[in-house]
Amino acid sequence: MQFVRISDVTIHYDVTVADSGKPVLVFINSLGTDSRIWHHVLPKLSDDFTILTFDKRGHGLSDLGTPPYSIDDHVSDLVGLLDHLEMAEVFICGLSVGGLIAQRAYERRPDLVRAMILSNTAHKIGTPEMWNQRISAIETGGIASMVDDIMAKWFTPEFRDPGNAAYQGYRNMLQRQPAAGYTGTCAAIRDADFTEAAQKIAVPVLCIAGEHDGSTPPALVRSMADLIDGAQYRIIEDAAHIPCAEAPAAYAALIRSFLFNDVED
């Protein structure tokens, strides 16, 4: 485990180094999760990339900071981390809110971004009313009061089998998430709208949707892809909002194919 102080927040991160000549692939996790969601994907890519994972502020082992947040708060943490590690022209894979962070990072610092995988995300996610209702519900009843509803959006019924230990592990991850970090990031998502910014993206982009995603359905991901000139769009079957957990082999294969066949050529 590695830690760095960026402004007023300590960020937890890990770097897996293939060798000094390999391109850098950065993973940004979703709301209510931490960098462990990439656990089954990393071994499938670590021979070919230097991989950076980290916990957003308010998540995992990173500091809470001062919620509520903006997407720019999360972007400043990412940019500070990349500058600290002297990394530039990286590939970024952002899942859900991670995709919003990736889009804004490109807008602010295009020199840092060589290509993007925008996974289970969109240019705008939900409505202010929806996010305000979720924030209020969690402030009243805690994250535990919404776990079943959130899990139904994150995972397919097959994965949510009570006998699936991995499913229980992801429930634990969400329930143990600091409520203030969760609602603080809900506010960031609520206030983010990159409809215009998405149309100005000029690096290669792969947009990934989960067939049964209840948080960012395929049609929403498709609408983002349609805004981005030249963006590719792919659906992972038999997966929902967290395909890196449900279908890590298919997920890694899409990333590898995109980065080696469509970006490197």
TrEMBL record:
Gene Ontology annotations of biological process type: beta-ketoadipate pathway
InterPro entries hit by this protein: AB_hydrolase_1 (IPR000073), AB_hydrolase_fold (IPR029058), AB_hydrolase_sf (IPR050266), PcaD/CatD (IPR026968)
Transmembrane regions: none
Xref: Pfam families: Abhydrolase_1
The AB hydrolase-1 domain, residue ranges: 23-248
Alphabetized SUPFAM superfamilies for the sequence: alpha/beta-Hydrolases
EC code: 3.1.1.24
Single annotated GO MF: 3-oxoadipate enol-lactonase activity
Keyword Hydrolase assigned: yes
Highest taxon of the lineage: Bacteria
Enzyme class: hydrolase
UniProt entry keywords in alphabetical sequence: Hydrolase
One Gene Ontology cellular component: membrane
Protein name, as recorded: Beta-ketoadipate enol-lactone hydrolase protein
Organism from which the protein derives: Pseudorhizobium banfieldiae
